[in-house]
Amino acid sequence: MEMLEEELIPWAKETFGWDDETEEYEEEWTFQQDSVPSLRAKETQAWLQAKACEKSHKSINSLKKAIKKAWDEMPDEMVARVVDSWPGRLQACIDAEGGYIE
């Protein structure tokens, strides 16, 4: 979680603009999972499905709110597994010069 707070979030705010008043990004962007094992895990997928998609969403905003709520409720252990995998994944991306990595 520390890496997200110290690296990703500040980068996203600078890159996509951040409105402190509305607490929304000025440009829409998406944080996409990269299929690391901890994100592909059946447990993680089932948890997200149950939390964010337990009902149909009539708008993108509704889905975004559900995902944000699910993120806030995600157990610390689950987040830690994801965050702990980042340094190695980022280094692999650098080593592959942005090319394919496993």
Explain what you see.
- The protein has 102 residues and is mainly alpha-helical.
- It has five helices and two strands.
- It has helices at residues 2-16, 37-40, 42-52, 60-73, 76-95; strands spanning 18-19, 24-25.
- A two-stranded antiparallel ribbon has the order 1-2.
- Strand 1 (18-19) and strand 2 form a beta hairpin.
- The mean pLDDT is 79.
Topology:
Elements: H1 2-16, E1 18-19, E2 24-25, H2 37-40, H3 42-52, H4 60-73, H5 76-95
Antiparallel strand pairs: 1-2
Brief account:
By secondary structure, the chain is mainly α. It is 63% helix and 4% strand. The chain folds into 2 domains: 1-31, no CATH class; 35-102, no CATH class.
Instruction: Write the element-wise H/E pattern from the N-terminal end onward.
Output: HEEHHHH
How many separate structural domains? 2
Cα-based radius of gyration, to the nearest Å: 15 Å
Query: How many beta strands in the DSSP annotation?
Result: 2
Mean pLDDT: 79
| Biggest pleated-sheet summary | 2 strands, antiparallel
Q: Number of DSSP helices?
A: 5
Structural class: mainly alpha
Give the uncertain stretches in residue-range form. none
Percent helix among the residues?
55-70%
Strand order, sheet with most strands? 1-2
Taken as a percent bin, the fraction of beta residues is under 5%
Shape: globular
Cα end-to-end separation: 23 Å
